[in-house]
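Structural prep section.
Before we set up the soaks we want a predicted structure of the protein with 2-phosphoglycolic acid in place, mainly to decide which crystallisation condition to try first. Input record follows.
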Amino acid sequence: MTAAAARIPLVAGNWKMHLTHTQGAVLAAAVVESARHLPGREIVVCPPFTTLPAVAAALVGAGQDPRSGPAPGGPAAGGARVALGAQNVHWEGEGAYTGEVSVSMLRALGCRYVIVGHSERRALFGESDRTVARKARAVCDGGLVPVVCVGETLEERDAGRTEAVVARQLGAVLEVLEPGSMGELVVAYEPVWAIGTGRAAEPADADAVARVLRRTVAGSGGPDAAGSVRILYGGSVKPENAAPFLSRPDIDGALVGGASLDAAAFTAIAAAAGGQAP
Ligand code: PGA
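Run finished without errors. Recording the tokens verbatim:
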């Protein structure tokens, strides 16, 4: 069911609420530079909204189309694809929604990915499974790719509810998606207790949860969707601990917070993601 050969490794950096637009442009250019020798991988940088235009321009300046990868014959040709992602979005197309940003606005800036349902959004900003599902649907409808975050709290883990929680969170999203778009999805398994704590999950445990998520996709979208959906692990991923996660059969990449703010550390994680012939 895993059909791993078809899945291009993906390492995404969630910059959270860090970096001004000028700082972000510098980091993005450094990431492209370090990713020049990493063919066969996809790297995604997800800056704050206000930093997106400057990062998009920096990617173009470094030879990357933020949606489709290295420009042929340009300075980044032969290296990793470095794409642009946002950290959040609203599900409506436009309207009186003060402070919100729509999918079409993100698409116009060159975004290819949008993180939805990060645990910080769920815990600190009250996002429910239903809200996350609406966002994921809007992202797919707008032609972009949602990175759907799921993960259990420590209490849920201690109560033996990890699998039930992540299956519920992902199930809510799958319920509203067209089966045809499920294979395109990226799902990030991020145990809440592992985010920003320095305490990563055990790679074997994360892989077992990734298998549950893949089975959940199979249940809604069939074996082809399950074989092509990419599942990331996130939570205290660093260059030192990345390889054991990234070599697991059902883990196709990483969602990286803190370590994504350093170009060398971030691309070292991408290097551990293996990679295939471009
Ligand atoms: P961390 O964050 O790598 O700093 O633990 C991961 C995330 O929140 O996506």
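Observations: Residues 14, 190, 195-196, 234-237, 255-259 surround 2-phosphoglycolic acid (CB under 6 Å).
Flagged for discussion at group meeting.
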